[in-house]
Amino acid sequence: MSSLDQLSLPPSLRGIDTDMSNQQVIYSTLRFLQSPSESPNRLRPDGNQKSGNIDGKVILGILCLLLLATVAVLGTKIFQYTQENRRQREMIGNLTREHHILQNDSYLKEKLLTYKTLEYSILKNELLQQKKKQDLLFTNRICQRENKGKFYGNCWSCYGIKCYYFIPESKNWNRCKQTCQSYNSSLLKINDEDELAFIQSQTYRNNYWIGLSYDDREQKWKWINIGPPFGINYTFMNSSGRGQCAFLSSTRIATIECSKTYNCICEERIDDVFSAYFDRYKKKRCNGTCHLFVCFCDNL
C-alpha cells in the first residue's frame, strides 16, 4: 500500500481523495501513454528545419540553373545579334561603296556621252561645212559654146553625184526628151526632197519639163528610164493623167498636156559629165583656170 493509502483523512474527504488519486493515476497514465507520441512532435521542428534547408537549396540551385540558362541564352542572342549587326553593317558598307562606284560610273558615262555628243556635233559641223564647200564647187557651171558659135544659156549645175543641164528653150515634153538624149543624158528624175530643193533654187521663174509622164498603155505614172534609185511619188500619181506630163517650177510640181512647151532639164551622173567633157577637149589646150577637178576653159 502506498503512503497515500496510509494517510488518515476525514471521512468527508476520503471519497474526494480517492477520486483525485484515481484521476492522477489516470492522468499519469495518460501522460505516460501520450509521451511516446509527443516525442516525434518534439523532434519535428528540427526535421522540418533540415527539410526546409534542403528544399531551399534545391530551389536556389534550380533558380541558379535557370539564371545561368537565361544568361547563356541572352549571351547567345546578344552574340548572334552582334554578328548579324556586324554583317549588316558590312553589307551596308559594301552597298554604299557599290552605290558610290555606280554613281561615279554613271557620272563618267554622262561625261563621256557629253564629250561624244560634242565631238559628234563638231564632226557634223565639219561635214556640213565640207558639204557646203562641195556644193559650192559642184554648183559652178561649166558653160560651153557649140562649134557653130551659137551660145546656149544652159550650163551644167552639179549637186551631189549628179549634174543638171538647164536648157532655156521652149519645147514640148517629147522634144525635151530627145534633146536630153542628144546630150547622152535624160530628163530630170527627182530622187529626194533635197534634190528637189536644189533644182527649184535654180529654176527661177521658168517652168521645166521633168522625166515624169503618164503611160497610157500601162495606165500609170512612170519616171523615165526606170531603175534604181526610183523617183519620188507624188499625190497626183495616184490618179489617171492620160496625155499629161509633169513639169517643175520654183514652187511646185504639177501636170499638164505633154504638148505644151516648157524649158528642159537634163541630168547625168557627175563622173559621166566630166568624163565626156574632158574627152571632148583632151586634145586641145585649155587656157583658163582650174579648181580641183573642175576646169573653166576660156578658149573652148
UniProtKB/TrEMBL annotation:
Q: Which SUPFAM superfamilies match?
A: C-type lectin-like (SSF56436)
The signal peptide here is: none
Q: Residues in domain C-type lectin?
A: 159-267
- Keyword Chaperone attached: no
Source superkingdom: Eukaryota
GO function terms (MF aspect): carbohydrate binding
Put simply, this protein is called Protein mago nashi homolog 2 isoform X1
Q: Taxonomically, what lineage is the organism? A: Eukaryota, Metazoa, Chordata, Craniata, Vertebrata
